[in-house]
Amino acid sequence: MPQRKIIHVDCDCFYAAVEMRDDPTLQAVPLAVGGAGGRGVVTTCNYKARAYGVRSAMPGSEARRLCPGLVTVPTDMSRYRAVSQQVMGILRELTDLVEPLSLDEAFLDVTDVTEHRGSATLMARHLRERVRNEVGITISAGVAPNKFLAKVASDWEKPDGLFVVSPEDVDSFVRELGVEKLPGVGEVTATRLHALDVHTCDDVRALGASALIERFGKQGYRLFEMAHGRDERPVVVSRVAKSLSVERTFSQDLPDTAACETMLATLVADLNLRLSRKGRDKPVHKLFVKIRFSDFSTHTLERVRENIQEPAFEDYLPLLTELVSNRERPVRLLGLGVRFRNDDAPVAQLRLFE
Description:
This protein is of the alpha+beta class. The chain has helices at residues 14-22, 47-50, 60-66, 77-94, 120-135, 147-154, 170-175, 187-195, 201-207, 209-216, 218-227, 257-278, 313-323; strands at 6-11, 31-34, 42-45, 71-73, 98-102, 105-109, 139-144, 162-164, 243-254, 284-293, 298-304, 331-340.
């Protein structure tokens, strides 16, 4: 059985990062999302605010006492969800084995991914670069042989960091790890462990499984396993892939449709590579092309194309031609993909009273 390769990605101060991206003047000030008014609570804050001791879930009044110059903005969940979908879409272009934990973090199992020379470290670098360039925010990533260590690692070099725990380094890394770093160990559990003179995972090992289970129940066994760097939990995928796509955002706009047609051939090759790895057993229902022009207007065109096993350049060219009315219009982003047929969905709708 191959050694598992798990990546945990976590968007840095996600809501605040979206606000700073969309209003660059907020980058220079301590910023909190939420927390306005007399009874408001801070949802998250940027790192300038954190330097003053401001934290999420803190009452806004206390945050302003700690940081008199704090700027607050209201939450905008629909905007954050849209950005989250964009980030998750980039992750799923690498692998279908993605387990979102929230809007701003996810696990990926990349054990069987052969792209980027099969290196999880190179994959994490690629994901961080794409999110920075295409979404305009930063993510921190942790790479490790299991979920627990990957999550710890993603927090190691925050913000905008990458930390790798290789299989041969697991034992030495875990031994020195403070118990506060363990997922699920909050202030109460940490205090109870400290009272037992347990401060590191090495101390947890020394205390032993029986003593931990006696004092902490099931959590005690989990603590003992983590202290040895063990975590067999799989990445759980709860989402059925309905489509598969590839796209590229260009640092310099493509000048015209002729340049788009050249790039189209490359994108078709990339799409078929992904299909060969994860989508050949799914029947294709539609093809689509997506284009974003230099003025940031975005358009998508899709057409039903049944019984296509391997989409070709000639299949996508008519969609591109139909989508672009002005062949001299510069293009910032070009993408294409397939939508799969859902054979489990009902094929007919019953009348209401039958």
